[in-house]
Amino acid sequence: MTRKIDNADVEISAEFKLSPEGKQFLERLEKIDGTHKVPAIELFSPDFMKTHSSFPDFEAMVKASGFEEQILDDFSKVLVGEWDDYISKNTKFSDWEEMKNTAAEEWTIKELTL
């Protein structure tokens, strides 16, 4: 009678060493771990804006919005519903939250790319 090997019964020891690229990736991952304040111009880069809107950059979108003064003074003064409407009409996003989240995801990927 032949005994069948169950994968759960077999353990193999191995030594794993990170390549220089792997170490660099971990360093980048540690660098971006946590909460960050990223300048809007960096978060909503020209590439991001060209991909997701008809604007060449974030500044052009803000200027065209009519909310420029409130945004520069205190972004929290902008009426959320009106800003969401502007975002949904002028970008590929349904609202500001979706735009920020997508920008954060793309920024994170860019920061992790070697």
Element layout with pairings:
Blueprint: H1 20-32, H2 40-43, H3 46-52, H4 58-65, H5 68-74, H6 80-90, H7 96-112
* Shape summary: elongated
Gyration radius from CA atoms, angstroms: 23 Å
The residue fraction in helices comes out at 55-70%
**How large is the share of residues in beta strands?**
under 5%
Low-confidence stretches: none
- Taking all residues together, what is the mean pLDDT? 83
H-E order: HHHHHHH
How many strand units? 0
Class per helix and strand makeup: mainly alpha
Question: Could you give the distance between the termini?
Answer: 53 Å
**Chain oligomer state:** single chain
The biggest beta sheet is recorded as:
none
**Total DSSP helices:** 7
Q: Quick summary of this structure?
A:
The chain has 114 residues and is mostly helical. It has a domain at 38-112.
Structure explained in plain terms:
There is one protein chain. The protein starts with 19 loop residues before the first helix and ends with a helix. It is elongated and about 80 Å long. The chain has seven helices and no strands. Helix content is 59%, strand content 0%.
Features:
114 residues, elongated, 7 helices, 0% strand, mainly alpha
